[in-house]
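User:
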Amino acid sequence: MKLRNIFIHASLIFVCLCPLSAKRLNSEKIVFSSNRDGNWEIYMMNPDGTRQERLTYDRAVDWEPVISPTGDQILFTSNRAGTRALYLMDIDGRNIRPIFGFDEAYRTQPTWAPKGERIAYAYRVLDGISIHTARTDGTSVELIVHLNSAHSGYPVWSADGSEIAFVVADELHWASRQIRFIDVGTREQETLFPEDHPRMFQPAWSPVDSRIAFVWFKPRRKQQSVFVVNRDSSNLRRVESFVADAPAWSPSGDELVYTEGVVGSDSQIFKVDLTTHKMTQLTTKGSNRSGNWFSPKQLPVSLSASHATTSWGAIKIRNYSKANNN
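Assistant: Predicted structure:
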């Protein structure tokens, strides 16, 4: 009997240490949005374009999906409650819930911190658009950037979490777009190519180094291309292509996915190898927009307490211990 009790106790400890929460991805996946079924919904596919699976089913616009660094949740925007707001769902599309409840604030362009403990997003208020961070339960909201004479948006964290890159709009002149960096700790800011008056937007920070991919629109050439540059502004190079949009890095940092308009079709998702320059079209149906690319090989080293245990397991062990001692 004593041996049986020891076995049950050990089994309950194992339950406590092994979470009963949502499933996690065990292979690389790309998440994206598509209107192929008549409405913008969230989809997921393999990096080679196979097994394209629909995750959301709602008459609203579901948009801007990003997989959490822990591989168990997807953060996205939706207007299913009226205004554009931030939502979370489990990796299989279940358990959809609003992060900030059903208020009327306009939040969009979400991104994850490298370890998944916080998110950043653009927040529209009466006097412009600012950038905030928060926990995924909607608490600990913090204002990061607010510009009195311009708008800010498209936040994205550096690989080490020390900086956030974002876009400053309409500060130099109407339709100007510049990429700026802010130190999360000191709040010091630095502009990429400050001497230029470009239209640069949609920055994407490499998950393995200091490179930034971004979209650069050149009105005189009527050209909108994806470029890659080092954080210190060195080694600027054009990647692709004439009408490229929404770049996102592969987990290894050697490929990019992006959206491009196709003649005779809608916008489709492509990936490009940055070494060989080989391009591969991943989608063909409807209009599609890339989200982000996840790999379980790059899970955060230390998961948060919410990912490491479950209250159910703890309660079971406490109850078992009390019963065994009585």
